[in-house]
Design a protein that fits this description.
Blueprint lengths: L1 E6 L3 H14 L3 E7 L2 H11 L3 E5 L1 E2 L2 E2 H7 L6 E6 L3 H9 L3 E4 L4 H19 L12 H12 L8 E5 L2 E5 L4 E7 L2 E6 L4 E4 L3 H8 L4 E5 L2 E4 L3 E5 L5 E4 L4 E3 L5 H7 L8
Parallel strand pairs: 1-2, 1-3, 3-6, 6-7
Antiparallel strand pairs: 4-5, 8-9, 10-11, 10-14, 11-12, 13-14, 15-16, 16-17
Helix pairs in contact: 2-3, 4-6
């Protein structure tokens, strides 16, 4: 059973979320409710939670201050927030879950299930492989996006079965779809499987000069080595990988490279 804390200043919202978690989710126990940044930090220190439901607007600051001030945080966070397009983009870069108010029951169930599943997978690891992973680096990526939106993002968080990996987008060579999962191939020859679709990474990485050349393949154009002509053609990347270009994406690909489309 995971220990959870609700950080929310509105009484009705506190009671509603607590009731929804208790009635419609499994594997989570609400051990405390906090109505401010100060109360949240005290509750975290007292209960060492596995999960924190975090409202953003609080009377003595905001929910992000809880992440900034928490000492060596190991808990997962699910933000509860009114719609804010930029904040949601930041959550995605940091692989942080969020629920839009008013909270939908099924979305709550899915978000909680993801946390429960991840924690169970970590618990099932052999002791020799198990380590308590601080969330600080993941939270730092989120806070960089929130506090300094004018600065170019240097890192993104890749959620894995046992935690997360933080990488610089420039170190990603390509992404390959595997249904609802995506393989991320890095310059250092690592291959990381993440539980997100390739469409999510297409949206996230487009500002970093990535292009989706095929339904299943997203490439870093900085890693493009050769293009071989054909109906759609194919590309060779700096790691030696050869990938076909979808015929229907060829024209956009050529325009992206500022080249004229061939006649084949």
């Amino acid at each position: 059973m995971l220990k959870a804390i609700i950080v929310e200043d509105e009484k009705n919202s506190q009671l509603l979320l607590k009731a929804m978690v208790e009635q419609f989710t499994e594997g989570v126990e609400i051990v405390a409710i906090a109505g401010s940044v100060a109360e949240a930090l005290k509750a975290i220190e007292t209960h060492s939670p596995d999960l924190v439901f975090e409202d953003i607007e609080l009377p003595d600051g905001d929910g992000f201050q809880v992440l900034e001030k928490a000492v060596n945080p190991t808990f997962d966070v699910i933000f509860t927030t009114a719609y804010n397009e930029y904040a949601i983009k930041a959550f995605k870069y940091a692989a942080t879950d969020y629920l839009l108010k008013p909270i939908d029951m099924e979305e709550l169930q899915h978000a909680v299930a993801r946390v429960v599943e991840k924690r169970q997978q970590i618990s099932a690891l052999p002791i020799s492989e198990k380590k308590e992973q601080s969330q600080k680096e993941s939270f730092d990526v989120l806070l960089q996006q929130i506090r300094h939106p004018q600065q170019a993002l240097k890192r993104i968080v890749l959620p894995t079965a046992t935690g997360f990996t933080v990488v610089d987008p420039i170190d990603i060579i390509r992404c390959e779809s595997d249904r609802n999962y995506t393989y991320i191939f890095l310059n250092d020859k690592r291959r990381i499987l993440v539980s997100k679709t390739i469409k999510e990474y297409e949206e996230m990485l487009e500002p970093f000069n990535f292009f989706r050349i095929h339904q299943s393949h997203l490439i870093n154009l900085h890693c493009l080595k050769n293009y071989i002509r054909g109906r759609g053609g194919s590309v060779e990347l700096t790691d030696g990988t050869m990938i076909d270009v979808s015929a229907r994406r060829k024209a956009d690909f050529m325009r992206r490279l500022s080249l004229e489309e061939d006649d084949e």
